[in-house]
Amino acid sequence: MARRLRADMIAATRASLIAAAREAFGTIGYAAASMDDLTAAAGLTRGALYHHFGDKKGLFAAVIDQIDAEMTIRLRAVSARAADPWTGFRDSCAAYLAMAREPEIQRIMLRDGPAVLGDPWGWPLQNDCIRMMAQGLNELVREGVLAPLDPEAVARLIFGATQHAAQWIAHAPDPEAALRAATDAFDAMLKGLLRKPA
Q: What are the transmembrane regions (predicted)?
């Protein structure tokens, strides 16, 4: 019972720090968010932050992980609503691009994330995403929906294109116009992967 209570307290402390940090990082940004303000907002001490996350950068990485997990759930829901796996894949790519308009995702994932954590290609969650995408593409190749191309190569190209397009949308003077242009171009690019009738 005591062990369970301690585990619940640890989880509650982590959740409080992540929630406070997410609010601050999403509104004023990583650089402007002070550790004292973060811990005060969570009703905790700086020692709690150090104990659970090591430092501010570790807390930021935990916020990135939380947002990424939520984005994944949303994208899977978009894919699940589609009439078939290929449409689901295409729709989830378009939905990812649309997320680049959301202020929290813009600031935390697309602006501060690379500045604080370095090149996203080195983030573990990015590699997991590529691996899952390659598995889905491999299935579409096996079913004859896509041309017989290397699924990992295709996944890396698509992932790179969506990442770069999302950055463009997030930084564009007119994000809506950039989203429309990127979605049209991306849809045309994806159609090029379809297996041509014999």
A: none
Task: Name the 3-class secondary structure at 194.
Answer: strand
- Asked if residue 80 and residue 123 are part of one domain, the reply reads yes
How many separate domains does the chain show?
2
Residue among 158, 150, 173 at smallest CA distance from 96: 158
pTM for the model? 0.88
Look up the CATH number of the domain holding residue 41: 1.10.10
Residue 26 belongs to domain spanning: 1-54
**pLDDT, tens digit, 9 for 90 and up, residues 76-121:** 999 999 999 999 999 999 999 999 999 999 999 999 999 999 888 7
Do the beta carbons of residue 117 and residue 57 sit within 8 Å? yes
Nearest-CA neighbor of 22 among 103, 123, 99? 103
